[in-house]
Amino acid sequence: xxxxxxxxxxxxxxxxxxxxxxxxxxxxxxxxxxxxxxxxxxxxxxxxxxxxxxxxxxxxxxxxxxxxxxxxxxxxxxxxxxxxxxxxxxxxxxxxxxxxxxxxxxxxxxxxxxxxxxxxxxxxxxxxxxxxxxxxxxxxxxxxxxxxxxxxxxxxxxxxxxxxxxxxxxxxxxxxxxxxxxxxxx
Amino acid sequence: xxxxxxxxxxxxxxxxxxxxxxxxxxxxxxxxxxxxxxxxxxxxxxxxxxxxxxxxxxxxxxxxxxxxxxxxxxxxxxxxxxxxxxxxxxxxxxxxxxxxxxxxxxxxxxxxxxxxxxxxxxxxxxxxxxxxxxxxxxxxxxxxxxxxxxxxxxxxxxxxxxxxxxxxxxxxxxxxxxxxxxxxxx
Lengths: 186, 186
Hints:
Strand content of chain A: 15-25%
Radius of gyration of chain A: 16 Å
CATH topology of chain A: Rossmann fold
CATH architecture of chain A: 3-Layer(aba) Sandwich
Order of helices and strands of chain A: EHEEHEHEEEHEH
Number of domains of chain A: 1
Structural class of chain A: alpha/beta
Shape of chain A: globular
Helix content of chain A: 25-40%
Strand order of the largest sheet of chain A: 3-2-1-4-5-8
CATH superfamily of chain A: Isochorismatase-like
Largest interface: A-B, 32 and 32 residues
Distance between the termini of chain A: 5 Å
Oligomer: homodimer
């Protein structure tokens, strides 16, 4: 079977902090848990990415309880883990070197948040030559305000970012599509 | 005065091809021309990025007339030029090395398209530690369709991408704000 790594980005307790505002895709963590357990059953590689913020007030700082992985995405012994301090999981980490050394060419990317760390990592992965599936219902983001004061909903941000990424940096798929492809690949 | 490089991304004739669909910010090239002439008057560094697509049907392929720079963004002798084949101007190029060797820490980014090459380059620049101003009226994009068939307008895509980038990877500014900052910096 083809090797496909599941890359789980920043699924950490700090994202439950109310300071982030309203979120879309409340089921994303359940989808990630399902993908993770299926990846384990199939002995496919899993990469856990943890954000260790350098910002003074971030709940994702290493000294904050929010730095911990959420229960749905807790790594198991033997699974690759890496920490990062910026949005891209390829900057300041050994991710590219690790993937090349394992001859992994295909990635399934999930996690938080769609338009920040997930988008940035997906863009770099695609531009570095990896084949990426981005899972639309296993990613999520938060409402944001433009610098002109306009309010944008999490779901509009999420959907527009997926439209910009799809076909250019990755293929956007649902959890169901990814699981059915994995099953047909066995 | 502080050194600030103007990075002009993919302002090439191929983007006038009707196959891209409807665009926002028709004045972007005029704004870029104004920024470029001001940068020249101030002897600040200018970096011209040219996309050399590897895709068989792209008007931006090196063997197509659309690969040429638009008149408003034509490089002059002595200005740094680089070509790229992916979205990020930092991948497969010497851009980071060039900026470090010139001790350039601050960038003003303009060009096409907001959500593809401009966003990807801005994200990597910010994550690599550069201070980035992204110019809202000197960038533009095209309508896109999501993989569920939903149509998104160029201006909604543009505005949402700027909202996601602002404060996280860069500061979003208008041409007028950038020019007034440059003037006060002299």
